[in-house]
Amino acid sequence: MITAILSTRDDQMGLALALSALVPAATDGTIRQAIVVDGGSRDGTLMVADEAGCEVLPDDDGEGLRRAGEMARSDWLLFLTPAAVLESGWQNEVLAFIDRAVMAGEGRRRAAAFRLGRVEGGFAARFAEGAAMLRSGLLAAPYACQGLLIPKSLYQSLGGHRPLPAMADVDLARRIGRRRLWMLRSRAFVRDRAHRPGFGGALRNAACLALFLMRLPPRVIGRLAS
User: The pTM is what?
Assistant: First the structure.
């Protein structure tokens, strides 16, 4: 039913944790295939992928995600990153979402992303979650770590991920459009502080998004994002 596609680069521990959240869904048949798109890892990332039974696809030109979408054997694609771990029971809501979309005749026109979750308490964490929800709802621009569930047919009709130096995930989400992008209640918990930008990082992310919405060249945005 679903092919999980994870983009990686030197993230051995993150991949192991992200894949562990997929085990129940693989056991019950929700996840039928897992593909790791790797950008040249030199640690044990590929060993983790192999031991988990994932297919590995190298990404030397930025086209790896699109190629993975083409080789997927399932009708639905679930794009994830090792930056976050899906909360327990996520597959139940995903299956309900797919069932509703199919019954409504929109099974080829609906996509979904997870809510951003932070495991720590406090105002800063709740503010980050709210800001991510606002960005996802108003701008149809969820973070890559929030994942993306999309019918393979819709993904292909949109041309898939483009080989951009930055904001490729936002570019795809914007082409999906706000009306076709549903926010699930299940959360994708950001894994560690390396993926939790501080105030300066948040400002840089906001600036990159603003430049993207202003349609500045991706190479300009890429310099700011790096």
Answer: 0.85
